[in-house]
Fold each of these.
Amino acid sequence: MSRMVPSESHILTNLRRGALEYCVLALLRNKERYGLDLARDLADGAVLGSEGTLYPLLSRLRKGGLVATSWRESASGPPRRYYSLTDDGRAALEVFEDAWVPFRSAVDTALGHDR
Amino acid sequence: MPKATRFPQVDRYLHELDDALAGLPAGERAEIVAAVHEHIEAALTGDDVSADEVERVLRALGDPLAIAAEAEGGRPTPGFDAPSPAILRRGWVPALVIPLAVVSGIGLVLVFPVLTLLIGLALLWMSPLWSAAEKVVGTVLLPAPGLGITVLGLMSFGAGETCEQSATTDLETGVTVESQAVCSGGQSALESILGIGGLLLAVTSGLVTAVVLYRRGVRRAQAPAVIT
């Protein structure tokens, strides 16, 4: 097995490291949401590996002050943890978006995927 | 420790997750396990939940080792990106490695078992199918049954009893008086009990470890997404 050619999952891991947390922040832009809800939304794309990997990320975001958690009563069982954007989280998301759009364009152009 | 849930599969999953997160500070570890627990409970609301649904939810959550990798991915670890050999995550790996390590313990005074044990343990460590903690436990406990048998065998061979007969003969009458047999060496009753007890402990712990690691290895080998 060639040591120089990375596997797809290796590449995806690296790509996610840059973008995943901002996708999570973006999902929290308009309202607070609970874990399962976020996981279901992200699981459709390639951005989240498996649903469980969302939770260490949320823990990191909370510790970094980008996300806050609160408890809400739930109709169908025990109280649920809801995640919401802090002001710092909102600011970080803006910085990412400003960087992302030109970055994505540049990569697409380099790969020859421009329209 | 994760709280018990309604489903044994879920309990097993949360315990595996808790083990996989052993490298993290206690607060973070508990937070992640609790959040995943909450996710599962939210996904499995209702009284009539089938085993298939539970399986589906757990599979969507993914391998606990992948979740642990994400948790550690927040900390830079030098050299962590080295890809593991893909061939060592196939299904035959647990079937080879586990029995090799367990059986090799027998007769460790000889060269051949030492070699096969080292090969088994080397494969265990190189394979991505098990976490570091699992590999450490496996290294210590998988050879234990065979080692126990070897040690017990050596003790029995080395501890031969020697008995001396001594007799006092009354020279005048020619009658033998006070014939005694003095036996020394051998195993005292206490040693025997400790030996058997130790052997049972070694065999039980080794076999339990073997079964658990084997089943986890086979399951992860079959899962489509295994961490690299």
Amino acid sequence: MLNVDPVFLSRMQFGLTVAFHILFPTFNIGLGCFIALMEACWLRTQKPVYLTICKFWMRIFALTFGMGVVSGIVLSYEIGANFGPFMDSIGNVLGPLLNLEVLSAFFLEAGFLGIMLFGWKRVSPRMHFTATCLVAVGTVISAFWIMSANSWMQVPAGFHIQDNIVYVDSWVQAVLNPMLFPRFFHMILASLIATVFVLAGIASFYLIKQRHGELARTCLAFSVVIAAILLPAQLIVGDVLGLSVYHHQPLKTAAIEGLWETQKGAPLVLFGVPDVSAAKNHWEIKLPKLASLINTHQWDGELQGLMSTTRDNWPVVAAVFFGFRIMVGIGLLLMLLAFYGAWLLWRGRLYAHRPIQYALVWTSPLAFVATLAGWVTSESGRQPWVVYNLLRTNEMVSDLSGQQVLISFSLFLCIYLTIFCFYLYYLVKFVRRGPVHLEEPPMTVAYLANPNQKEPV
Amino acid sequence: MSIDLPLVWAGVLGFGIIMYVILDGFSLGIGILFPWIIEKAHRDIMMNSIAPIWDGNETWLVFGSVTLYTAFPHAYSMLLPRLYMPIMIMVCALIFRGVAFEFRFKANTSKWLWDAAFAGGSLIATCCQGLILGAFVHGNLVSDTSGVQHYVWFSGFSVMTGIALIAGYALLGATWLIIKTEDSLQKEMFNVAKILLILVVFFIGVVSLWTPLIDVRTQVRWFSLPNFFYLLPLPLSTLAVVVGASYSLQKRYEILPFVCTVLLFLFSYLGLCVTSWPYIVPHTLSIWQAAASTKSLSFALIGTALLLPVLIGYSIYAYTVFRGKVKADHGYHH
């Protein structure tokens, strides 16, 4: 019998499965909104390119949705199997939130997805557009409930605890907890941004290959304009969130800033390597006073340092420190790219400008990396708590054998690697083939007489 | 007037579980039948019969676990770690079944891989669900001895229920396909359903006889007077439905076989509920002991009472949009 720690493995397994899962709803929230927008344009203008865009991106939506569903099912069972005591403790809060998510969001998405993908010829155009919108709305509602639950874990509100069981005192306070709105909008914007950069990348790919010109130009134009608007918005929302984190989770701020000693007017550590055992950073590049300014909006704001408390209260400093910098670094890079692209569009030079098109192709997955890095910052920064300042993660793991968790962890690792490779393979294959065979068949008499024949090549 | 909230929620949970069993039952059943259908066109039709609705069907699985959690968190957190391996293997099998829908239709040379994934995933997921069912009914998950026993879920009884569920879901799948298909595939499904019906009846008999043997309390519940006469309608109705199912397959009715199979599941399910009542973790935790706080149960019930009828409504609508026989060009195609 292998002697492996089930607590450590359970946490690693959950980290793996939740990180894998989040990629797909992130993509689907943005795609759903974009497809709904394109179908609205199609209904308004009747230009065929909009319909082609819809049908093309719907295939990618379907592929991604399937991955999201199966990895989501894993989470809904894993969280109970691996973290039974945690679920037991906060059942009174988390249960109703998840219940509402399933009822108001999951069933909505799943119920109308079939009509959206397969119901073109079976329902009226208006009903089909309604289905598309409802799927998009479902993804956003889902995000709301999950962010509410996760934000409650960050700043628990409206409750009291007795014998290790949480009881809700006020549902309004519990659901609309202090960190919900900044985090919800931050996540929605992240989804939209990640999606438009994939759009821009694929559109640029077609322009470089000189294929599907009209579709590519339309998608690229929408993408750069949306990105140029959303990225500054995300910066502002991120700032608001940063203020909230400073207020509610000062130790997370300390880890983000790599700050060991409590001080006023703390410097911004642009780069460094935090050393947890020595409680200092190596090879620091600092800018004076900026950390205080960013986190408190005052030059001499006081930031709490990690050394103000004992080590068993410290988050995972390295993960938080680097995760944050990766996220912000990518965000700033993408923002510059978006501004440049928007300016080129305004000057009428975007479609011919090869350098930016190559840049957009190569940077297309980066926003997803940023999203993951942000989640690492958020969740690793919440440690050692599973509910901040209330329940410690290590005490909330199920009584399982190390052997069991090793088996399940290995299974998930292998299976997820495999299907992710296939997902990317089929996605690339589909993109390479391009939007062909998607146009509506011609309304000839022959076709109407025999609708079961294959579509013309 | 005070409502017995745990009782109401037991009803909601019971409803959610039977909805899942029937809806994903025929979806998984189609996967189980896959290896017996060799013609590619037939396999495409089989998948297309559920392609627009499998997602909604599988959502009831999440509804089931989340409802169990919302209403009876102490049971949820007690049961799931003790059923760790079958749960983990089940969700892994469901991963393969789920991605097979999209990947299969995009594949050319690797299509066989996704056929195997669809069939294998469906089979293994079903077997795991049967194992979990058997372990639950068996009632020995929580023992008096110290520490958690990690592999108690595996027993002769639970292996039997695993196989029984495979036959049951396969029958659901076959009778569903009788409704949705025509010509040679439908004919094949009639023949398959007749064989499966015999298997399912056999297993209903085995479960009915074996379950009382496990625990004296079950024997008392079913066979003591006057319980025996109150509960007699259940096995009698089951017998009537078996006769009806056999007749409907003989006479080649299209919809009746599926209806009869659903009723078979319903009556078997009610029988298991009778056996387990009032435990949500047999024989350790009753529904009242495992329930969440009153405030949480009420809050969630309001949302459920409002949203559940709505989602049932639009789910029915989605089914009606895709009513009728499956044609070769419906669903996925490239």
Amino acid sequence: MHDPHRSLRAWSLLLLLLCGSSASTSLAQTLAQGEGTRNIRVLDHLETPAPSRSIHLAASGTFYVLGDDQSLRSLSVEGTQVTSTVRTIPAQIDASRRVVTTVTRADGEHVFVAAERDALPVLWHQPPSGRARWINLPQSTQSVFAYHHTQAGALLLLGTDDGVYLYDVDALVATTKPEPRDLLEAPPTMRGPRGVVDVYAQYDEARGEDRLYTTGPEEAVIYDISDLSAISRIGGIRSAAIQTAPFIRPTSDGDYVLASGGYRMAPLRIFDMRPVWDGSLSEARTATGAWIPSPYGDVRRFTVRWPYVLMAGLHDGFFVVNMRRPSEPFVAGAFQTYAGDRPALADRARDLEGAFDVAFRNDDGAIVVTDPTAGIFVLRMEDLRMWDGRRWGTSPMNEVQRWDAPPATY
Amino acid sequence: MPICAYCRPFGDPESVSDIEIEQDVDRPYVYVARRNSTKGFDVIDISDPENAFVLTQWRIEDEDLHQGGAMDGRYFQHEDRTYYVQSVQFRQGGPNADVGAIVFDVTDIGETGVVEEVGRIRQPNNPGGFHNIFMYRHSNGKPLLFATSGSYAKVFDMALFLEGAQTEVAARLDDADRALVGRVPLAETPNAWSSGYHDFYVAYHPESGEDRFYGGGGSGYYVFDVSDLANPAVRATILDVPGVSWGHTFTPSPDGRYAVAESEFQYQPLRIFDLQPALDGEVENIDYPVGAWHADWETVAHNHEVRWPFLFVSGYETGLSVVSLEDPTAPRTIAYYDTYDGPHNDRAARREGSPYTWGVYNGAWGVDVRNADGLIVVSDMTTGFWALKLEGFDGWNGEDYGVPNISSAQPWGDR
């Protein structure tokens, strides 16, 4: 049987012999490393001087990657060509958190990174042209998400110990000392040292609502934010064995919500929210399905392109899992980014080694996976060369924002 | 390692709960608790394990009026008599909702086939019965019954109970607590999932000379010194462990250094904790395991018995597993036998809105081991009673493995 990966390795070895460049060496090493590969093609592999962690995919198609050395790397992927530029942000940034985001305005792409400077919480703002500026924030930020609200335009959502701060991006950009338009206070269980650890917003087509998804200690809470003057809680998830889900995302149609457990041996759980949306239940308590790359594995970050869920599986590598039947998920693609051993359970310092974060570009299926021990991988899955929810019989909603039109018009 | 197994099927599905084997090979009796469609217990004669038979059965009177059933059972010996304590849980609205345990004299069961009810321990102030119990021979020589009740593990002196005597504590209470000699509370637990205990284990700790209580409940696990029953003292807590919302079953190694902990939610492995840092005072609380084990990540284990370095697990849908804890950081399965052939993760059994993952609570409920010859017994909720033998495991004495000879088997005959 023809092995496409063998052919690719042969070409790469030839390339290595002919060119002998460090890039080709990295690629060959990558391919040799990627023995645990299924249906995934490597476009490029970048070794970085410091561990690379969180990724944000901008509407422009640029991938932004945060590194432990306060670096913000922007990756341009054109076909099989990958170029990157790096800049250092002079602040303390927790690269393990999703604290970078972008908004495209008439003048171009604005980049925002939540950080700390002189022990004070700040937002670093790089406009399309000109110098970067610093915006004081009321609280340290654990998660940042930019959302195109159906009525209010571009919003910046910050997950903090207090709750979720909502900023109008127009005011953020134009005002010298911008103030948040609102604070959505976290419920009592969520407030405190850990606060709101993940924040995400998505338009729910079927129900015609802008929805905010938050997670923190004890529970995940979902809000209807269609009317920003009357934000209401519409449901939640409170599952045993998940103290704080570090990451939460709905499916494109909002019928299900996926949440990671945040510890080793915790599978990625999927919750059927339809009984919550129809009022039968106030919250979901148990998962309808789950998936884990190995019995002793871990999944923290993922992105949803229904029915696919692309997962960063830490020590087990990167996976694309088909969850069309939530109780019977199966692997559609896999790539092992991690060359090390699986550490002992008590070796908590090594919990977050391996495939750390993932982003997927809808137009051409380009996938970027970070691995703090190995760098940045640019991949493509053979039968996922683009994604449009409509072609899968579902909503096109996903985490990549369109800034040219509100989501209700898609 | 192959296991040979003998199965004695019982009645309706999910009518079997916990199991207890007498340690004396001259008293070859196994007690299997029954619930739901039939409420009481069965006594199995295992003098010939491959031809085990039901010696006798006991059922609650007016069975049809009761909802619930028998849960956990333990035997003990006192003054040359043998007694079996059956914990029960009957729902309110029916009779005996305040009964926690029923005590039987089973001394002559081999000759007469009769179990004689001696009395009932009632807790009218905490109806709902005792979900779990543990019989322990305290260092003071007394046979003590530890029972889940309300916010405590309550401790009853069974010698006083049998004598009809009252404790000084009971002098201030009504007759229901006449044998109550102590109560072990939960240690301080902010935002506890449960206000009380689910299960526990009590053992002598040779190094310190203490009687130690190991309880699962609250939001994790708790170790108490119960040498002075009037003043139980916290020795260690295991709280804020990622994935552990609630403690279920908790069993230490014979030397009290490690502990196996179960949390009864789907996808949860058994976790192995090193208690030493807390016992030494290095940390106030232990919040992370040193090892973990799954039979199948999609299921959940239920009860277990420790015969260090072996761990015998009644793993619900995965049946019986035998695990080596030779390296507590790397537990490994050395044998298994699937007692349950029903559907796994039964979606029809799920209850919307419940935090408990009901779809996986079927199969092997309880397990016990006879130390004298290594006979393993398993109660499967649906397939019934199993007697199994692990090749090469012909008995257990901790000293053969370099640990104290301490297990759930109590030294009733020793003075």
